[in-house]
Amino acid sequence: MATSSIKVLVLHGPNLNMTGFRETDVYGKKSLEELDSDISAAAESMGIGIRILQSNSEGVLIDTIHEHRTWATAIVINPGGLTHYSIALRDALVSVRLPVIEVHLSNVHAREEFRRHSVVAPISIGQVVGFGGYGYIMALTALVNFDKEVV
Ligand code: DQA
Predict the structure, then answer these.
(1) CATH number of the domain residue 23 falls in
(2) Phi, psi (5° rounding) for residue 48?
(3) Is the pTM of this model over 0.90?
(4) Ligand 1 cavity residues, CB under 6 Å
């Protein structure tokens, strides 16, 4: 049961369902189910309300953001490859006027040049990159402790 007023929509974008199988040297060996279970447990211990969705479809991600406009107080999103080019996803995040934290399992800044650019970063409070699944828990911790009144 949530004990704080913080309610977080956690979104995983395209190909993150393959986590634990694809490029394990980059993204880690844990499956998305395991990461989600860690996120849910952390949220529960922090008293945060949580909803988690993975989709390979940009449209489903956008619809889910719109639908959570009134439920969520913040969004934590790993947009996967959409990070680097989806203006539509960025516009959806802006449209709901909720604070956003961008998470990446890998350190995108230490990889190919095209991964260093994010269209989501400029409309986010901040990015957490390179800490694997723990990055989502870092994002939740930031939402609870962040000293600006963003949530
Ligand atoms: C990723 C990084 C992206 O560049 C990539 O397209 C992904 C995963 C990450 O979590 O490190 O799918 O978002």
Answers:
(1) 3.40.50.9100
(2) -95, 140
(3) yes
(4) 15, 78, 80-81, 83, 104-106, 108, 115
Ligand 1, atom 8: nearest CA belongs to which residue? Answer: 80
Do the domain assignments include residue 69? yes
- Inside any domain, residue 151: no
CB of 131 closer than 8 Å to CB of 142: no
Please tell me the distance between residue 34's alpha carbon and the centre of ligand 1 in angstroms: 18
Residue whose token pair is 């723990």? 134
What's the 27 CA to ligand 1 centre distance in angstroms? 8
Q: Residue 1: what pLDDT?
A: 55
> Which parts of 3-99 are beta strand (E)?
7-12, 49-54, 74-78
Total number of domains constituting the chain:
1
Q: Which atom of ligand 1 is nearest to the CA of 104?
A: 10
Q: What is the mean pLDDT of residues 77-101?
A: 98
- Told to judge if 66 belongs to the known catalytic residues of this protein, a careful annotator would answer no
Is 150 inside a domain boundary? no
Domain assignment present for 68: yes
Which of these is catalytic: 27, 68, 134, 136? Answer: 27
pLDDT at 18 over 90: yes
Question: Containing domain of residue 100, as a range?
Answer: 3-145
pLDDT of residue 6: 95
Helices then strands, counting H and E runs in the chain, come out as 5, 5
